[in-house]
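Subject: mismatched residue count in predicted assembly?

I count 223 residues in my input, but I want to confirm that the predicted structure covers every chain. Input:
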Amino acid sequence: MKIIVINGSPRTDGMTASVLHSVKNELIYHGIDVEYFNLTDLDIGHCRGCCSCYMTGHCFIKDDADWLSERIRQSDGLVLGSPTYASNVSGLMKDFIDRGHFVIEQLLNDKYCITVATGENYGYKNTLKVLDELIIYSGGIICGHMAIKAPFNSTEILQEKTRKQISKASYKVAAKKKNRFQILYHKLIFDIGIKPFVMRKGKLYRGVTERWSDMQIIKEKIT
Ligand SMILES: Cc1cc2nc3c(=O)[nH]c(=O)nc-3n(C[C@H](O)[C@H](O)[C@H](O)COP(=O)(O)O)c2cc1C
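Triage response: the counts match. Full output below for your records.
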């Protein structure tokens, strides 16, 4: 298995990084091949909202967003971590979410995922919810998720509870554990919301339906 780990904090040695490195080491312990990326090291600009990627299958902005999205597409799973900024994900993470071809393209179809949100006082559970919904709407399976509260700038050693959560989540990824409730929830969202919306768009969303055909999410050909 190959898993991509992405740190959405501008601080490459902060709390989020500390948890993500621990997840990385646990996945490696299970024999999984891991690639770790700090979004702050990459060049990922804002989405310009032109929607041309839905027709062409790629973004016209030539930076690292499509490249990282493609790395995820070729992997078996994703670990996403973000600090909480104003009760939400960081700006770095939001830019990648907007540019990464996640939801409409079903980037995480059948991929095993873990989410990590850190914060120091309030709103970090909302950050986790944003990441979790992204995973489910994009077709992924959440094998574990953790919202971790710690003082800003702390380099404190991870608490026992967090270590147990990391260990359990990593085991579930390695064992390819699926949750039937999540699969059903995603099916409802896809069948009732995403698929009819995309089909109504016809050729304007050709890039999306071509990806779906490649992944065998749909059988019909759009002409
Ligand atoms: C601009 C900014 C906004 C923040 N907003 C929140 C917040 O709304 N809620 C919260 O619990 N923590 C907030 N924090 C604290 C960070 O989320 C927290 O310290 C986090 O663990 C930092 O992660 P890092 O060490 O990986 O950068 C904020 C920090 C910054 C710099």
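The CA atoms of residues 188 and 194 lie 9 Å apart. Marking this ticket as 'not a bug'.
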